[in-house]
């Protein structure tokens, strides 16, 4: 008889199930580069860019298989000398939920992507 305790060796570790802001930031930045890259700002394209950024981020986040519901917000603004301020707030459980905001820019635009992760 074996003394080896039966254990699910494929079960993820608790650390692997936690929100990792660096991992999320990397996903968002790669997606921004793929969708917009160095393209110049074109107002007519911003709805499609925002949709592609959000959908691409959500697709990659869900594939992480972590116990979260995700909300992704994307703001795209032309660099024209005007100011830009973006704020978000949530009421949640600080022990289970988290957020990551990525500021990204190229020569003609600023993009702010915020990912909210609500633990389930």
Automatic annotation (TrEMBL):
Superkingdom of the organism of origin: Eukaryota
An MF annotation (GO) of this entry: dynein intermediate chain binding
GO-annotated biological processes: microtubule-based movement
InterPro entries membership: Tctex-1-like, Tctex-1-like_sf
GO (cellular component) term, any one: cytoplasm
PANTHER family: DYNEIN LIGHT CHAIN TCTEX-TYPE, T-COMPLEX-ASSOCIATED-TESTIS-EXPRESSED 1/ DYNEIN LIGHT CHAIN
Family named by the database record: Belongs to the dynein light chain Tctex-type family.
Name recorded for this polypeptide: Dynein light chain Tctex-type 1
Species assigned in the record: Paragonimus skrjabini miyazakii
Taxonomic lineage from the root: Eukaryota, Metazoa, Spiralia, Lophotrochozoa, Platyhelminthes
């Amino acid at each position: 008889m074996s003394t080896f305790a039966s254990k699910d060796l494929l079960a993820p570790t608790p650390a692997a199930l936690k929100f990792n802001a660096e991992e999320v930031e990397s996903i968002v930045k790669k997606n921004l580069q793929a969708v917009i890259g160095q393209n110049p700002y074109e107002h007519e394209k911003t709805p499609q860019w925002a949709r592609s950024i959000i959908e691409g981020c959500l697709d990659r986040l869900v594939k992480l298989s972590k116990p979260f519901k995700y909300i992704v917000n994307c703001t795209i603004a032309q660099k024209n000398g005007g100011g830009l301020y973006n704020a978000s707030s949530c009421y949640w459980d600080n022990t289970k939920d988290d957020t990551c905001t990525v500021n990204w820019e190229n020569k003609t635009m600023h993009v702010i992507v915020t990912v909210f992760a609500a633990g389930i």
